[in-house]
Write a structure and sequence with these properties.
Helices cover 37% and strands 21% of the residues. By secondary structure, the chain is of the alpha/beta class. The structure holds zinc ion.
C-alpha cells in the first residue's frame, strides 16, 4: 500500500469513526431523555413548591436560584445575567361592585398588568355595553367619555387555540386605543374562558399602558350584559390595590456546554422561567424550563461533546414584554453573528408538529436533516411565518436565525395565563418526547457540517417585517414603537 492510499484510508477511518461517534451520542441522548429522568419532579418543584413566578416577585427570584442550582448539580456551567425591567407591577387585591338602586353584585375580576391603582374609594362610573368594541360600536356610541366599557369576547376554546388567543390580542389594539382616545374611565373585558376562570395578559401598550383594564368572570359579565340589555342602568366601582414601582434589574439564567471544535459558534435553546401569578405557570412555561434543564443534564451525564457551544437560556421577563431575551441580545451583541441557531419553546406540552422558521426559508433543509434522528416522533411540517410574542422576537429582529416550536393545541389556550395553568394540566409523556425532539435539533445543529446561512443584514430584516406583515402583531405586544424608533431590533 503506498503512502497516499494509506493516508486516504486513515482519513476515511477517522471520518467514519467520528461520524459513528456523533451518531452514537445522538442515540444515547434521545434514549436517555425518553427514559425516566428528573424532568417531572423538577417541574413539580418549580410549580407546586416555588409556584407562580411573576418577574420581580420573591418567587421569581427563588426560581432563578433554583434553576441555577439545577444546572450546577448536573455539572453544567451556569450563571445569572441581569437585564432591565421598565416597570414593576403586581396586583395586591381588588374589590369590584356592579350596582344600581335595586341590584348589586360583586364579581371576581383581575386587573390587566400595568393598570394603575385606584383611589381607596375606587373608580366609579356608569357601565355601558360596548358589544365587541369594534369601530362601529365606538362610532355608534356618543357617551363613552368617563364610562366603564364592557367588552364582549369570543369564547376561547382549545379548538380556537393559539389563533383564537392571537385574535384576542389583536382586537385589544383598537379597543384600547379608541377607549383611551375617547376618554373612557376604563375597560371591562368579559373573560373569554367559561366557569368563572380568570387570566391576565399584557395590554396592547405593554408597560406603557395608561388605561384601567380589568377582566371580569364570564358569567358575571354576561349577567351585566343581560341587565343592560333589559334597560337597567348599572354603575361599576373598582377598588384596585396595586403595587407599582419604576424600573429594576432582573436575571436570566444562562448555562453552557462548550463546543469541542467551534467553541465560539453558538446554538441556543430557550424557554422563559417567569409566569403570570394566577396559576403556577406549568404549561406556560415551567414544563419547557424543565425540558431545557433535562437536556443539559443528560448531555453532561453521558459526556456528550458538541462541536459547537450549546447555550441553555432560561429567559425572564417574557410575559411582561419579552425583556429577558431582549437584554440577552443587548449583552451579547458582539456574539450575535456567531449564533448559528436559536430555538424557543413556549406552547406548553402539545406535540411538536414542526417549527416556525420566521422568514428564514433557507434553513428548512438543514432543519429536516437535524430532525432525522427523531423522525419517528414526527411527522414534522415547518411553517414559514414570523412569530411575534415570545423570546425569538429579538433574535429575529436582529437577523439571527430563529425557530419557535409549533405545538399541537392540546390544552394550552384554555388554561393560558389562567388560574388553571397548574401541574395537573401537563402531558408528562409528551413533554419527554418533546425533550427528545428539541435535544436532537440542538445537538444536530451543534454538530452540523455545513451551515449555509448567516445573520441577516438590516435591509433583510426590514424586508422580512414587510413581507410577513408583522407590524400589527408588533403593535399587539407593545413592540412596534421600539422598532420604529430604533431602540430595539437591528439598527435600520
Ligand atoms: Zn409563555
Amino acid at each position: 500500500m503506498n503512502k497516499f492510499l494509506l493516508s486516504v484510508f486513515v482519513s476515511i477511518y477517522f471520518l467514519s469513526t467520528n461520524t459513528l461517534a456523533v451518531n452514537t451520542e445522538m442515540k444515547t441522548l434521545i434514549t436517555a431523555l425518553k427514559e425516566p429522568t428528573p424532568i417531572i419532579s423538577d417541574l413539580k418543584q418549580l410549580t407546586d413548591e416555588i409556584g407562580s413566578r411573576m418577574t420581580g416577585s420573591p418567587a421569581n427570584i427563588k426560581s432563578i436560584e433554583w434553576a441555577l442550582a439545577k444546572f450546577k448539580e448536573a455539572g453544567v456551567d451556569a450563571h445569572k445575567e441581569s437585564f432591565n425591567m421598565p416597570r414593576a407591577w403586581s396586583e395586591l387585591s381588588n374589590n369590584v361592585k356592579v350596582f344600581n338602586e335595586n341590584i348589586s353584585f360583586s364579581p371576581n375580576v383581575v386587573s390587566m398588568p400595568f393598570t394603575s391603582k385606584t383611589a381607596k374609594s375606587g373608580l366609579s362610573a356608569a357601565l355601558i355595553d360596548l358589544k365587541k368594541g369594534d369601530k362601529s360600536a365606538f362610532l355608534n356610541n356618543k357617551v363613552i367619555k368617563g364610562k366603564w366599557l364592557l367588552i364582549e369576547t369570543a369564547l376561547l376554546t382549545d379548538e380556537s387555540g393559539v389563533h383564537g388567543l392571537f385574535q384576542e390580542y389583536l382586537d385589544a389594539v383598537d379597543i384600547e386605543a379608541n377607549a383611551y382616545k375617547e376618554g373612557a374611565a376604563g375597560i371591562v373585558y368579559m373573560s373569554s374562558r367559561p366557569q368563572n376562570l380568570l387570566y391576565r395578559h399584557l395590554p396592547s401598550n405593554g408597560a406603557d399602558n395608561k388605561l384601567p383594564i380589568i377582566v371580569m368572570e364570564r358569567e358575571s359579565a354576561l349577567k351585566a350584559q343581560r341587565l343592560l340589555a333589559q334597560g337597567h342602568q348599572l354603575s361599576l366601582t373598582a377598588q384596585l390595590n396595586i403595587s407599582e414601582e419604576s424600573s429594576y434589574r432582573a436575571n436570566n439564567v444562562i448555562a453552557e456546554i462548550k463546543g469541542s471544535t467551534y467553541p465560539d459558534e453558538i446554538v441556543l435553546i430557550s424557554a422563559h422561567i417567569d409566569s403570570f401569578d394566577l396559576g403556577t405557570g406549568a404549561l406556560d412555561n415551567g414544563a419547557n424550563v424543565s425540558l431545557i434543564i433535562d437536556i443539559a443534564r443528560q448531555m453532561k451525564k453521558y459526556n456528550i461533546k458538541p462541536k459547537r457551544t450549546i447555550r441553555f437560556a432560561l429567559f425572564n421577563g417574557e410575559e411582561q414584554g419579552i425583556y429577558g431575551s431582549y437584554g440577552y441580545t443587548q449583552l451579547h451583541a458582539d456574539e450575535l453573528d456567531k449564533h448559528i441557531m436559536t430555538t424557543t419553546i413556549d406552547l406548553g406540552t402539545g406535540k411538536i408538529n414542526g417549527f416556525y422558521t420566521n422568514g428564514r426559508k433557507e434553513i428548512t433543509a438543514a432543519l429536516n436533516k437535524v430532525l432525522e434522528p427523531v423522525q419517528g416522533l414526527g411527522p414534522f411540517n415547518h411553517i414559514n411565518e414570523a412569530v411575534v410574542g415570545t423570546d425569538n422576537y429579538d433574535f429575529m429582529m436582529q437577523g439571527v436565525a430563529n425557530l419557535v416550536a409549533d405545538q399541537g393545541n392540546a390544552n394550552y389556550a384554555s388554561n393560558y395565563h389562567a388560574q388553571s395553568d397548574t401541574f395537573d394540566k401537563v402531558d408528562q409523556k409528551q413533554l419527554k418526547l418533546n425533550a427528545a425532539v428539541i435535544a436532537a435539533l440542538t445537538l444536530g445543529y451543534a454538530n452540523l457540517e455545513d451551515v449555509t446561512w448567516q445573520r441577516q443584514s438590516s435591509a433583510q430584516v426590514v424586508s422580512m417585517v414587510k413581507e410577513f406583515d408583522i407590524e400589527t402583531s408588533m403593535k399587539t405586544f407593545g413592540l412596534y414603537e421600539s422598532w420604529t424608533n430604533n431602540t430595539r431590533g437591528i439598527s435600520h
